[in-house]
Amino acid sequence: MTSDIGPLQAARAALEAGNMHQASLLAGAAFRAAAQADDHGRAEAGYLLCMAQFRLGRWPAVLESGEASSPLLHRIGAIVRQVEVLRWVTIAASELGRFDLALASANESCRVAEAAGERVPLALSLMALGVCIERMGDPWQAHRLVEEARVLLQGENSPYAQSMILNNLCASYLGAFYLLRDGAAPAEARAVLEKAVGHAREALPLMAQLPNNGILSAIIEGNLAESLVHLGQCDEAEQLLDRALGRVNEQGNTSHGWRLRYARGELLLARGDAAGASRELSALWQDLDGSEQSNTLTRVHDALYRSWRALGVHARALAHLEGFEALERRRVVAQLQAQSRLFVTRVEAERARLEAQVERLRAAEFEADAQRDELTGLGNRRHLERRLPPLLAAAAASGHPLSVALVDLDHFKHVNDRHGHAAGDRVLTVIADLLRAHTRATDLLVRLGGEEFLIVFTDTDIHAAQEVSERLRERVESHDWTHVAPGVVVTLSVGLTTAPPYDLAALSHSADLALYRAKRAGRNRVVVCNDGG
């Protein structure tokens, strides 16, 4: 039973009131006082302490309290809270450049959440892994992880999780901008900023639904403002930064305050005030000295380099350029060491984890709901009814393309009539194998019945889907079917359509119409429905 000693009760009340500084002091006192108490009391105090320190941006303290409280929470079976603590440790370690600890904590958080079947905690754990990967220097891989987390949240009513996912999508795009902005692709750099802005604007109304959301709203507003600065929308950015700084100063959150002050320096640079930027950023640099805030300090060095260069003070510009490069080298070394200690690269880890998760989800769905076609091993209509709506919803939410191919074997009745149903079944199983060979694990394959199949190409526009469908058609036509029975000839017709609209009935109608046209035009061809009707 939980030991409800005075400081623990007071810490809960302070957290509910949004007073993180007071909550941290009280939870710390409760944690120390509960040293000889039962595990429940000490675990509760450690959890509250870690939460308060995380909200205050006290990253080294988060690592310390997280290390102490995570095993206690596991021991008492508080799995969701343990996953939260591991996620906070992941983010804190990422901010400090402790990538070995961040990756280990993120992987453990994902493992525990997935084993418990907790979708929302798993989504937030994937998001935290994305934060780590972005800090390690790969915002594109981070974006893929956070997008996967977003898909996991489909159908969940969790404004906090959804707003955090959107905020971290914004952050991953912002990280990509910093890598792209001095390169040869200014249009691409601007495009990722516009995506960052869109995600942040989508997150803010969700955050407004939550109580005591001052710090979290300030983080989202800060990322939005930073993105707007680089897009040249400085007036709105300034208003957001002023409001966000007021919130973090009120809470005493120094770490997030530093990031917002950096954004103000970028704002002054964007307005052409290099002198003002150098003054503000130099003061921030002095405050950051010895703080271990490697990510923010790296960006401050870069901004100071550009400020002093604009002022013609080349010695100071060079010193900050050297400081920036030294921190970047340290980041790369930490990244490589972390990967070496885990004996796996980021790409391999993500691929293995995603493939394993896809297979587990498919196996569970087929086993639970009899969604597998017995002959071909593909999904059946029940599988389609379960899988397609969330795919459409995810594509609609992200604005990504999605294409649908309706595939029908030509004159298949002749195969059955002339060579027998056993030969016909063999043809269908070979067709299923060819479909698998020409699609990805993330695509949806379904046997609708008889000789008719459906392919849903995720994140694929109509041109790419047409190329894949045409290769499949050619592969079927050129296949040596004599191993089935002498004289067997198999071709197929494909009706192809694409979303938007992200509507099942409209897509089905368009694909049917395209297939009908393929049959009328002589079969053995791919036809795209371009008119939606």
UniProtKB/TrEMBL annotation:
Stretches assigned to the GGDEF domain: 400-531
SUPFAM superfamilies the record matches: Nucleotide cyclase, TPR-like
Pfam families: GGDEF
GO molecular function, one term: diguanylate cyclase activity
EC primary class: transferase
Origin superkingdom: Bacteria
Coiled-coil spans in chain: 344-374
Catalytic activity: 2 GTP = 3',3'-c-di-GMP + 2 diphosphate
Enzyme Commission number(s) from the entry: 2.7.7.65
Gene3D superfamilies referenced in this protein's UniProt entry, alphabetically: 3.30.70.270, Tetratricopeptide repeat domain (1.25.40.10)
Keywords for this protein: Coiled coil, Nucleotidyltransferase, Transferase
UniProt key word Transferase: yes
NCBIfam families named among the record's database cross-references: GGDEF
Official protein name in the record: diguanylate cyclase
Organism: Ideonella lacteola
